[in-house]
Amino acid sequence: MVEITRAVPGDAGEILTLQRAAYVIEAQLYGDPFIAPLVESLDQVRTVIETALVLKATDGGRVVGAVRGRLSGTTCLVGRLVVAPDRQGQGIGTALLAAIHEAVPEAAAFDLFTGHLSEGNLRLYRRLGYRETQRERVQDHLMLVHLRREPQPAR
Questions:
Q1: N vs C: which end of the chain shows fewer Cβ within 10 Å?
Q2: What's the pLDDT score for residue 32?
Q3: Structure confidence at residue 154 (pLDDT)
Q4: Who contacts 145 (Cβ-Cβ below 8 Å, separation ≥6)?
Q5: How far apart are CA 61 and CA 33, in angstroms?
Q6: What pLDDT is stored for residue 62 in this prediction?
Q7: For residue 127, which of 82, 87, 84, 93 has the smallest C-alpha distance?
Q8: Residue 145 Cα to chain centre, angstroms
Q9: Are residues 59 and 1 in contact, defined by beta-carbon separation less than 8 angstroms?
Q10: According to the model, what pLDDT value does residue 85 have?
Q11: Cα dihedral value 142, 148, 80, 144, nearest 10
Q12: What single string gives the DSSP state of each residue in 9-28?
């Protein structure tokens, strides 16, 4: 059973390893082995855990997913949603995003981005209420798709 809790600095190594495993697929998709999640250092991951909200999904003591959130004004910037390659498609990413939404109730919106070729990510985000706000070409081979989720009105 997967449990979602806040990461602590001692989780940095395992989260970095998971992040690299998950983002290798993205790097191959875009033909770019130097994407930010693959070149981030252990110290950088530890600093993020100490200064922002980082949630981890664990199963039997193993970290199988993680996500970051940081409040900027009234918007929560969501990043580095990662799920272990052998656990993808099992609802862990959905659960992590739902947990970050619940963990930052004061956010008026949640913003994130992904690459234009990352169809699985785009499907997940759209299914969870994210809507595309803009596309930004950052390199010849990469266009970032920015998405936003605003809280759903109470019924």
A1: C
A2: 85
A3: 53
A4: 113, 114, 115, 116, 122, 132, 135
A5: 29
A6: 95
A7: 93
A8: 14
A9: yes
A10: 94
A11: 0
A12: GGGHHHHHHHHHHHHHHHHH
Residues in the chain: 155
- Inter-axis angle of helices 42-51 and 12-30, nearest 10: 110
The whole-angstrom separation of Cα 8 and Cα 123 is 30
Give residue for tokens 């909200």: 53
> Could you tell me the mean pLDDT of each successive run of 10 residues in the chain, 155 residues long?
96 96 91 89 97 97 97 96 95 97 96 94 96 92 93 61
Q: Which residues contact 135 (CB under 8 A, 6 or more apart)?
A: 116, 143, 144, 145, 146
pLDDT per residue over 21-60, tens digit each?
Answer: 999 988 998 888 888 899 999 999 999 999 999 999 999 9
Edge-to-edge order in the sheet of strand 62-72? 3-6, 53-59, 62-72, 75-83, 109-115, 142-149, 131-139
